[in-house]
Amino acid sequence: MTFELFVFYLFSAILVFAASMVITRRNPVHSALFLVLAFFTSAGIWLLAEAEFLAIVLVLVYVGAVMVLFLFVVMMLDIDVATMRAGFIKHLPVGALVAAAMAAEMFLVVGPGNFGLDKYAAPAGHPASYNNIEELGSVLYTVYMYPFEIAAVILLVAIIAAIGLTMRKRPKTKSQNPSEQVKVKSSDRLRVVKMESEE
Fold first, then answer.
1. At a CB cut-off of 8 Å and minimum separation 6, what does 52 contact?
2. Nearest CA among 57, 43, 34 for reference residue 11
3. Is 50:69 a contact under the CB 8 Å cutoff?
4. Cβ neighbours for 62, distance < 8 A, ≥ 6 positions apart
5. Which one of 5, 9, 52, 197 has the minimum C-beta count within 10 Å?
6. Which sign does the torsion angle of CA 58, 62, 65, 71 carry?
7. Do the beta carbons of residue 74 and residue 29 sit within 8 Å?
8. Per CATH, which fold does 1-79 belong to?
9. Is 116 left (phi over 0), alpha (psi -120 to 50) or beta?
10. What are the tens digits of pLDDT across the range 118-159?
11. Are the beta carbons of 25 and 31 closer than 8 angstroms?
């Protein structure tokens, strides 16, 4: 067993452990922190696969931005842990069936036979001048240009829809109008009352 294979098995074991802890922990904050660990180990596996750009993007975007947002939302919400645990036990058989189906699909799609690899054969290494960012960009903007643009348009529509849902007017919500506030004069807010002095 080579050192790279040992590191791959180590990262894979940590990733499976972290993913299982994400869905089994009672505390949502602990689940989010285990998801951060899963992201880091996934980035390590991508580094072993010589996909440095994807590993850096995973750490910067998901760990640096998305997980901070997740933690902020989870800590701001008042989550009833007992109700959530009861729902977890209730839907456990369906979840196990879906997990088994997803594992079977991933094995059929990502199996080594579909990539022309033997059971224990490793892919050929790249030369020192290989640049995976250049290769990713050339494939993304040539072969997959239209799907990439369609995905960008769908994300833009989703952003606009989310803004539209949050910006709807609520009749009972109190709001301030800064343009009206700056027009206020001191005579509108302050009234001087003259009173005789008391002894």
1. 46, 132, 133
2. 43
3. no
4. 39
5. 197
6. negative
7. yes
8. Four Helix Bundle (Hemerythrin (Met), subunit A) (1.20.120)
9. left
10. 555 555 667 777 777 888 888 888 888 999 899 999 999 988
11. yes
Cα–Cα distance, 20 to 14 (Å, whole number): 10
Are 13 and 92 in contact by the 8 Å Cβ rule? The answer is no
Residue 32, classed as helix, strand or coil, is: helix
Tokens for 135? Answer: 């290769």
- Tens of pLDDT, residue by residue over 77-114, are 666 656 666 666 777 888 889 989 988 888 887 766 66
The label of the residue with tokens 């590191």 reads: 7
Per-residue b/e over 136-167, b at no fewer than 16 CB within 10 Å?
Answer: eeeeeeeeeeeeeeeeeeeeeeeeeeeeeeee
Q: How far apart are CA 173 and CA 58, in angstroms?
A: 39
For tokens 């979840």, name the residue: 95
Structural domain boundaries in the chain: 1-79, 80-119, 129-163
